[in-house]
């Protein structure tokens, strides 16, 4: 995993006075959050815009596959769950939120929808607000907001209101991380950004962007053939800079 930055086309960027990063696969945003935390950040609140909810438990897929391989009777749900939980706990115990190398070593076992609850388990995050187009999950920690289909890709105040998110849900004293997956945008819609989105950009300590090219290409509008993930990234970063002018 030493060459993860090259493999992920990791890109640091500046938006006004903010620092940000762009990565190919969303789970690698965790490493950017970790570096900010290691440098002295306090446990943050994450606001994420994504087509998918991306809140599976830490190492869920890897631990499930490992448990299936080691439990002789796969019909024994209790034994399977116990084995899976043991694998998850073992991997988390190898990670230290103040030690980047320990986190990097486990990234090959992490799927692209497990980074948020892994960050919670490590203490990098204290809470999250997941604004997405697929599911309104209800877990013990974190809040999900389901965007109506008519607002997919939208950044207007109307979108935030329609899914139930408001700035009042955020504690002003908590550090904020803004996280954006480009698969949220089926078409160029950056001119829809309203006061809520602009305030999130201004309040964010850091900003992470995931390209998620496979999902982006699959989910984008068919009539938007020329809207590539590269153009989406460029448009997104331009918007972030405009929000900070």
Query: What is the H/E order?
Result: HEEHEHHHHEEHEHEHH
Residues in β-strands, percent: 15-25%
Euclidean distance between termini CA atoms: 37 Å
Secondary structural class: alpha/beta
State the helix count: 10
Q: If you had to describe this structure to a student in words, what would you say it looks like?
A:
By secondary structure, this protein is of the alpha/beta class. The protein has one domain (4-59, 115-243). Helix 3 (60-70) crosses helix 4 (77-93). A seven-stranded mixed beta sheet has the order 1-2-7-6-3-4-5, sandwiched between helices. A hairpin with a 2-residue loop joins strand 1 and strand 2. The protein starts with a helix and ends with a helix. It is built from ten helices and seven strands. The protein is 38% helix and 18% strand.
Summarize the structure.
With 245 residues, this protein is of the alpha/beta class. It contains ten helices and seven strands.
Question: Which features would summarize this protein structure in a list?
Answer:
245 residues; seven-stranded mixed β-sheet; 10 helices; globular
Set out the fold topology.
Elements: H1 4-7, E1 11-15, E2 18-23, H2 29-38, E3 44-50, H3 60-70, H4 77-93, H5 100-104, H6 115-122, E4 125-132, E5 143-146, H7 157-163, E6 176-181, H8 195-203, E7 204-210, H9 213-219, H10 229-243
Parallel strand pairs: 2-7, 3-4, 3-6, 4-5, 6-7
Antiparallel strand pairs: 1-2
Helix pairs in contact: 2-6, 3-4
């Amino acid at each position: 995993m030493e060459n993860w930055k090259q493999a992920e086309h990791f890109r640091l960027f500046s938006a006004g006075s903010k620092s940000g990063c762009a990565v190919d696969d969303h789970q690698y945003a965790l490493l950017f959050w970790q570096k900010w935390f290691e440098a002295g950040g306090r446990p943050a609140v994450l606001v994420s815009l994504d087509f998918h909810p991306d809140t599976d438990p830490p190492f869920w897929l890897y631990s499930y596959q490992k448990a299936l391989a080691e439990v002789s009777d796969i019909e024994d749900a209790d034994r399977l769950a116990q084995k899976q939980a043991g694998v998850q706990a073992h991997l988390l115990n190898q990670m230290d939120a103040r030690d980047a190398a320990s986190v990097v070593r486990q990234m090959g076992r992490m799927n692209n929808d497990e980074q948020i609850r892994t960050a919670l388990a490590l203490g990098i995050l204290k809470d999250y607000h997941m604004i997405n187009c697929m599911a309104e999950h209800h877990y013990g920690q974190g809040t999900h907001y389901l965007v109506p289909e008519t607002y997919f890709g939208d950044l207007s105040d109307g979108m935030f209101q329609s899914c139930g998110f408001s700035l009042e849900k955020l504690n002003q004293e908590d550090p904020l991380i803004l996280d954006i997956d480009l698969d949220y945008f089926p078409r160029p819609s950056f001119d829809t950004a309203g006061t809520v989105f602009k305030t999130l950009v201004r309040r964010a300590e850091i900003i992470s962007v995931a390209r998620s090219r496979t999902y982006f290409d699959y989910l984008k509008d068919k009539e938007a053939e020329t809207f590539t993930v590269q153009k989406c990234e460029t448009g997104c970063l331009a918007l972030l800079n405009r929000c900070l002018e």
